[in-house]
Structures are given as C-alpha cells and as structure tokens.
Write a structure and sequence with these properties.
13 helices; 977 residues; mainly beta; six-stranded mixed beta sheet; 22-stranded antiparallel β-barrel
C-alpha cells in the first residue's frame, strides 16, 4: 500500500520527537517549530499524547489506498491486510449456501489471524455495531456488507488482544472503520467490473458523498449502491467438471438408482435412463451418479444499498457529533439438491410397486429380474408393497435473504479544564428475513405423494382400513407420484404440492452508553503521566426464529418437517457494565510504558478483568522498539448461550482416537459426519486469551520505513461441540448410549434401534452399563453383514455446547516501505507479509491438538508487494498477492478418491501426501486526474492465473484462500463538484 497519512506521521514523530494527540473522531493539527503534523484518531488507545505506534503495531488503509485498490466492497478491500488472510475465519458470499451448516447467505465477515470472526471486534468510529442475527455456525459476527464503502475514510487494524481498552471479543484484535468528515462539495463515483469470461458476471457500484459547512458545524450525507451478478461453476472450465470422477454421490437427480436383492441389502442398480454414463463403484455396482458442480454457484447474486449522514455542531464549548447509517441487502444462495430419505431420515425411501406401470421396458426388465419387493407403511397408515430407491430432488435448495440494518451514534464532547471528556449513545439494529423459494419439500407430503395419499390442498388423505379406501377432507385425491418421471406435467404438479417455503426471521439489537475523560495526570521524573478513565453500559439482544416446519421438535421425534433443511431456534439477551483506565508513563525521553485495564461484568456468565502492559523504547531518532502483553476475552455469543435447539451436522475424527476409529470407522482415520442437535449452554464460560507482541520500527530515512513484529496468542476455553470426545466417553459411560432417539432431556449418541437386538458375551446391550462394544460390533457384523463393519449410528445425536477448545498460534509480521523522489513524481515500493510460526488447535470435535500451519486452508505465509509511480495528475502501479503452498487434505478423502489419485500419478501410495501449490496473482491499476474528474482502471489477476488444484475440495480449489474468477476489469469514474 502507499505510505498513508499514518505512516508519514510516524516518520515525523520520530525525527522531530513530537507527541501526537489522540482526538476522538476528529482530525486537528499540532505544530512545533519546524513541522505541522496532522493528528488522527488512534485505534487502540484512549490517551492523548500517545505516540502513533505506542506499544503495539497498527495497520492503516488510507483513503489513498482505498482509491487505488479499485475495490467495490469491503470484503474485497480487506485482502490488502495480510492479517485477515489465511485460514477459514474470514468469509464472504463465495462460501454461503442454503443450509444451516453454510455461512449465512449474502453476508461476509473479516477475521484476524484465522481465529474466527467472533474473535475479532468490529468498530465503526471506535464504537460497536450490532452483530448479524444469523450466526456462522454458532459464532456471531458483524456483517461487513452492511458497512458502506462510500462513507469510509480509512480503516485501522490492530491485530493483537485489545480487551483492556475495548472489552469483549477483541481476542485477535480490532478492525475500526472510520467515517469521512469535514468533506466539502459533492463527489460521485461509479464503478463497473466484468470478467474476461463471456458470461455476464458484472459488478456495478455507485457512490455519492456530499458535505457542506453549517453554522458552527458541518453536515455530510452519503449513499452507496452495489449490484453483483452470479457466477456458476459451469461457467469455468476448471470447475465445470468434477475434480475427481470418484467424488460422486449415489443420490442421482431425475433418474433414481434402485436397491436390489432386498430392501435392506444396500446394493443398488443404476437407472438405464441416466443422463450420464453409469459409474462403477468400489462395490462393483453400476449407478447413476451426481456431481455437485452442475448446481454450484461460485458467487451468488447480491445487491445492497446504503444511505446515511454525519453531522457535527459546536454549541458553546461543547461539540455534538452524530452519525447514522442505514443499509439494506438482498441475496440469493444455493446448495445442492436435497437428498430424499425415508420419513425417519433413513436412506432409501420406498415407492409403491404401482409405478411399474409407468416404467420403460428396459427399466421394467431390470426390476423384474433384480428388485426385491418388500412391505412398507405409508403416512396414512396403509401397508403397501414396493421397493427402495436412492435419489435427490432436481432443483437446488434456494433461499432468499433480505437484511435491513441501521446504526445511530450521538456524542457530546468538550473540556473540563485541561481534561477532554466525551460521552456517546449507540443504537444499532440488524434485521434479516429468509425464505426458501425452491428445492425444499415436506417429508410427510412427499411420502404421501409416493403412496398416492396426497390431497390437492396439501393434506394427507384419511385411510379406511375396513373398506381399503382413501378420502380427502378437503381438496381432491392426487395420483401416485412417480420419482422416475421428471418430465410429465401431471407428475410434476403433484410434487409441487409438496414444496415447502420455510422462513427464518432474525433480529439483533445493541444499545450502549459510554463516557470517557482523558488528560495529564501528574508529573513524574520531569515528564507528564497521562491518563484516561471511562465506563460503558451495554445491552444486547438477539433472536433467530425459524418457521415451525424448519425446527427439530421432540414431539415430532426431532424430525424437521422438510428434507435437507435445518435451522436453529435462538433467543437471548444480556446486559453488561464495564469500567476502564489507561496510563501513559514516560520514564525518560526514550522509554515510556502504557498500562491499561478493564473490568466487565455480565448478567449471565459473570465478570472478566483484562490488563495490558506495553512499552515503547526510542533507541534513537531512527529506531523504536516496542512490546506488549495483554489478556482478552470473548463473551459466549448470544447464539451459543441462547440456542434452544440447532439442527446441523458435526464431524468426528477417527484419526484422533483409535478406540473410536475401531468402533465407528473400521479402524481407519478420517473425518465422519452425522446429523446432530446442538443445545445452547447458559453455563458457558468466556473464552480467554493472552497475547504477546515484540517488534521494532526502523526509519533510516524520511523515505524508508521498516517494521517487524513477533506475535503470539494463547486462546483457551473455545466454545464448540466435541462429538469425538462424546463417542470416546460413551465407550465407558452407558448414559451417553441410546438405541434409537436420545430421550428428551438427555444427551449422547443415537444408535440404530436394531443394534439393541445384539448383545455382548454377558448379555448386555449397547445401552447397558459394562457393555463390551467391541463384542456387540462383532455380533452386529455376523448377524447383519452390513456394508461397513462399524457400529451403526442413527441420527440426531444430542450434544451440548461447551468450553472444549484451545488454540495457540504465533508468527511474524513485516512491512518494508521505500519511496524514491524523481523529477516527474514519486516511485513507491511497499512489501508486507505475515508468516505463521505455529498454529495449534483442537482437531474438530476432538480433544486432540493438531498443527494447522501449512495444512489445508492454512498457508504458512501470505503477503503482497506493491509498486506505484505517482505523479501530480496520474498514477500507475501493480500489486502482487502471494499465498504459500500447503498440504492438501488427502487423509480425509475416501478410499476410492485415493485410488484415483494414485492412478492419475498424483500420489505414489495410499499414505502419500501432496501440496496445494503456492499462488501469486498480479493486479494492475492506473488513474488519471483531470480538474474535477478522475478515471481509474484496474485489471485483477492480470496474468489470468488459475487457482491451484485442491483435490480435497469438491470445487477443486480452496475457496477461502483462492478464487477461480480469472482476469477481471474494473473502470472507475470519480467526479467532484
């Protein structure tokens, strides 16, 4: 990035030994004998006279950086900050989907150090903003899509623990979006982006900012509009086809596969009407397969609009500042078509043998020779004969989300003698509405349709067993639905009656009142000790209410009424009061210490005190050493504390516990997933952390800046569910083992109900204390001859959120800036990077710790370098973005995937590893400034570098660290009146 106002001020500070004032939300000027230095708000300290670097590093994206970037939204802009790259914490709409396990549709979050979005505190002008009402998993986060780019003057990033100043959630650090002010005139901006591909993948951005002086004050108003078209996986040759032919699903759409030999054998026959060639499975079957690429969206359609104002006025000796932002966003997200299961969610639904009448001769011949006809019970209570099939619906699960958010801040400030004071009120609210518009079907109505029991009004017919007749209370009885016919209008009309449109309504509210006083406290050793004291009162509320048909309910055996679509029911609120103090203690002209501490008390989980100690040592006019130690905490999110029941999927790790692997994974490693119900835990403790920072800032000349910082975090009591741990504890704890559904009010693992027909040598079932699970597994395998020799899990295991996780990480940040003054302008070179030395975290759902650095999605090194030539009325430059290589997640692939990789020559043997290659992309930008008009051009990924192949991802690339969009062009026009 270009050296910002912040960096320039640092250089002037060191060469002239000037103290710079931290003035809340204002830019004043401080003058010494030789220089005038623009004073800016400093994120991370409340004290006046704090040096800009103070005891901790600060990254700033200036207005010049924003203009040069050509970014059309904040998610795109924040990739300039290396501390937000790497890992899976930062996400945008590329990762969103229509299911409860996806990141929320249409929303985006920025995470520091890969530690998760809820561990990064997001501020606007130094104060909080309401979180999204829809959590990412169970983590609450601030949706940065609700913050308008048009209103942003600069962005400060403090990538170290900051709870001593800001309170909860500043575990990994703080991102502070600072609004424009004191701008006079009218500025219009228009941006248009398009990819090199032929498909319509455009982005359009329009911004307006108008500012004018008022009597004793200033008033600004702004507006921001953004519209993005979708990008489908089929529009790119790299993602149009599956990365591995063996990454198929048995659940075909339009042409179901058929179970043969018996309804319970698990063997399947491929439908001869399959639209693609039949695939031979590892079990020797020929099936019609499904690949998710055909329904995948690499980028979803998104539209947003924002308006707001900023007003300041002087009333005597008091300043009154108010800012208001309103934003609305609309988005559509998609997930693969839902699997079709039995009513109780077992695989392979039954269909009546009456559909034989509509089979082709070829299919009928297969059925007559191989399919075993079995009895099954229907929703209306009939006993019919039929067979099982394997399929998914034809249309992708589709949800539309509309979000409205507003934030009002009003602040009074002034002086009490030599002390500054300020007090402010924050009112912030985010409200989201979601509706499923396609691909979601009611499980009871669908199965009634398969049995010919569905009425035209959606009700299920009444069955009279004495007369063997069906009758509808209202509406008319529809015919049998044939899942093997995807074209007949009459058949599709029956399916349409079973379509559901579950909804989800969420609201998040934040109310806060704060007060601060800061000034010089006393003299010490010929220097002045400065101090700041303050307090804050905050109230937060959140609700996430899905429609009844999207909830798991004990009264309904925890079955969600619709297929493939779950949600959480969450309502919670909390109140908090905090008090803080900060002291800047100069020991002499070279050394100063900063001490801060904050006490927060919550009405739910308790209290937390967090100190910070930092130092700055100015060795000479060119070199500053700095360091800090602090603690921080993250309050359990309101979703985590208040979720009543969340339907989701949880992984357990067979590689983390051999006993678990032997019982549930045939002794092999890898991740397995199951449907679970998560319960909130009002007894959750706060997550706690310690952070360390030690670094230097070196300024050998006024045109050179070098900073190097070592950092480390120890983060404990992370909130999560631990299915691996529960499976391990259940080996010896019978209270956690249940045949069939877990009874209401209890927790644990749900086993297939038939498993209780088998016992160990002492006659114990899986539910009995002292049962030998290995012996029961042997008897199960002998009796059932299942496809997989493992204890059969059922569904809806009930797990309690708990403080179960730990993560420790460390690394080095570095930045080198060099400017060269030439006759025709200035040449600027800026190199920044982050290198992870360690990143140890719990294996998902396990007590075991794994080293993440250099593993899938966690590159060890990320960085960028920019070279710009800046003249009076034009600029041109380029910025390269680098992501180092890391291991592909081969060990979690299926055996058939490994075999294919060996055949392709990618792996040598079953224990082989491979790396996702490093990736470097180059952006080119240029601009010309006329008297009132400026024109800028940006070319992203100038060399059209493809995303590195990641075989462990269904998309074939890592969507968190790479993208497949190729070369894109953006033209920007700015006009000032």
């Amino acid at each position: 990035m270009k050296r910002s106002t912040l960096a320039l001020s640092i250089a002037l500070t060191l060469t002239n030994a000037i103290y710079l004032n931290d003035v809340s939300a204002q830019q004043n000027q401080t003058t010494n004998q030789e220089s005038t230095v623009e004073v800016i708000q400093i994120t991370g300290s409340n004290i006046k006279k704090a040096s800009l670097e103070e005891a901790q590093p600060l990254i700033s994206i200036s207005s010049e950086d924003i203009a040069r970037s050509g970014a059309t939204n904040l998610s795109e802009l924040m990739r300039l900050v290396n501390q937000t790259r790497g890992g899976t914490g930062t996400f945008n709409t590329s990762q969103s989907g229509a299911t409860s396990t996806s990141t929320p549709p249409g929303q985006a979050a920025v995470s520091l150090r890969g530690m998760g979005p809820s561990s990064t505190l997001t501020l606007v002008n130094g104060r909080r903003i309401a979180a999204s009402s829809f959590a990412s998993g169970t983590e609450n986060f601030v949706d940065v899509n609700a913050i308008p780019l048009a209103a942003i003057e600069r962005i400060d990033v403090l990538a170290t623990g900051a709870s001593a100043v800001y309170g909860a959630d500043a575990v990994a650090g703080v991102i502070n979006y600072i609004l424009k002010k004191d701008f006079e005139g009218l500025e219009l901006n228009a941006q248009y982006s398009q990819s090199q591909e032929s498909a319509d993948e455009s982005e359009l951005g329009l911004q307006l900012f108008y500012g004018m002086p008022l009597e004793n004050g200033h008033f600004s108003v702004f507006a921001d509009y953004f519209d993005r078209k979708p990008i489908r996986a089929t529009s790119r040759p790299e993602t149009a086809m599956p990365i591995l032919q063996s990454s198929y699903s048995y659940l075909a759409k339009n042409t179901p596969n058929i179970y043969f030999n018996s309804a319970f054998s698990g063997d399947e026959i491929g439908n001869p009407n399959c639209n693609t060639e039949l695939v031979t499975t590892e079990f020797g079957e020929s099936i019609c397969a499904y690949y998710g690429n055909e329904d995948d969206y690499l980028e979803t359609p998104f539209e947003s609009a924002s308006v707001g104002f900023i007003h300041s006025v002087e009333i005597g000796k008091i300043s009154w500042n108010t800012d208001f932002i309103f934003s609305t966003t609309s988005s559509t997200s998609f997930s693969s078509p839902s699997p079709i299961n039995q009513i109780d969610d077992r695989e392979g639904p039954f269909v009546s043998e009456s559909v034989f009448n509509q089979f082709s001769d070829e299919l009928l011949n297969i059925v007559n020779n191989d399919v075993w006809i079995d009895p099954f019970d229907t929703p209306a209570g009939q006993r019919l004969f039929g067979f099982r099939f394997d399929a998914r619906f034809s249309d992708p699960r589709t949800v539309e989300v509309d979000t409205n958010a507003y934030r009002l801040v009003s602040q009074l400030s002034g002086f009490m003698g030599d002390w500054d004071w300020r007090t402010g009120l924050v009112i912030s609210r985010s409200e989201s509405e979601q509706v499923a518009t396609a691909g979601i079907y009611n499980r009871f109505q669908y199965h009634a349709a398969l049995a010919g029991e569905l009425c035209s009004d959606g009700s299920i017919a009444n069955y009279d067993s004495s007369s063997n007749t069906l009758a509808c209370g209202s509406g008319t009885l529809l015919g049998f639905y044939n899942p093997f016919d995807s074209t007949t209008a009459e058949n599709l009309a029956i399916l349409q009656v079973a379509q559901a449109r579950p909804t989800r309504d969420g609201t998040s509210e934040l109310y806060a009142l704060d007060a601060l006083i800061t000034g010089d406290l006393l003299e010490f050793n010929g220097n002045v000790i400065s101090a700041a004291f303050g307090a804050e009162v905050r109230k937060e509320k959140i609700s996430d209410i899905p429609s009844l048909d999207a909830r798991a309910r004990a009264a309904n055996d925890y079955l969600v009424d619709v297929f493939g679509f779950g949600s959480s029911l969450s309502e919670a609120s909390r109140s908090q009061i905090g008090a803080f103090a900060e002291f800047l203690v100069p020991i002499n002209d070279k050394l100063e210490f900063n001490f801060a501490g904050r006490f927060d008390d919550y009405d739910d989980f308790g209290s937390s005190f967090n100190p910070r100690v930092g130092f700055t040592f100015q060795a000479n006019q060119k070199l500053v050493l700095r360091g800090s130690w602090s603690t921080a905490f993250r309050a359990p999110s309101l979703n985590q504390a208040g979720v009543q029941l969340r339907t989701t999927r949880a992984d357990f790790d067979c590689g983390a516990n051999q006993a678990v692997a032997d019982l549930y994974c045939e002794g092999e490693s890898g991740l397995r997933g199951n449907n679970v119900l998560e319960l909130g835990n009002p007894n959750l403790k706060a997550e706690e952390s310690e952070s360390y920072n030690l670094g230097l800032a070196f300024f050998p000349s006024k045109d050179t800046e070098i900073t190097i910082d070592y950092w480390a975090f120890e983060h404990e009591d992370l909130v999560d569910t631990n299915m691996t741990g529960v499976l391990a504890r259940a080996i010896d704890d019978a209270s956690l083992r249940h045949c069939g559904l877990v009874p209401q009010g209890e927790q644990g693992i749900s086993f297939d109900p038939f498993l209780c027909d088998y016992t160990d040598a002492n006659g114990n079932t899986v539910e009995d204390t002292g049962a030998d699970l290995s012996q029961i597994l042997q008897q199960w395998v002998l009796g059932e001859d299942p496809r997989f020799a493992e204890l059969p899990l059922f569904r809806d295991h009930i797990l309690l959120l708990d403080n179960t996780g730990t993560q420790e990480l460390s690394g080095v940040d570095f930045n080198v800036f060099q400017a060269f003054s030439l006759d025709s302008g200035e040449l600027e070179v800026d190199l920044q990077g982050t290198h992870y030395l360690s990143f140890d975290r719990n294996i998902p759902g396990s007590d075991e710790i794994e080293a993440l650095e250099g593993t899938f999605a966690y590159p060890e090194t990320v960085g960028n370098i920019g070279v710009y030539f800046v003249a009076d009325d034009w600029f041109i430059g380029a910025r390269a973005f680098y992501t180092s290589s890391y291991q592909d997640d081969i060990e979690d692939l299926r055996g058939r995937n490994i075999d294919e990789l060996i055949d392709l020559g990618v792996l040598i043997d079953q224990d082989g590893t491979r790396d996702v290659k490093s990736w470097t992309t180059l952006d080119l930008s240029a601009g010309y400034y006329f008297e009132k008009l400026s024109v800028k051009l940006r070319i992203e990924n100038l060399l059209d570098e493809n995303a590195p192949i990641a075989y462990s991802s269904a998309r074939g690339y890592d969507a968190f660290n790479h993208d497949p969009f190729g070369r894109r062009f953006t033209v920007s026009l700015d006009y000032r009146f």
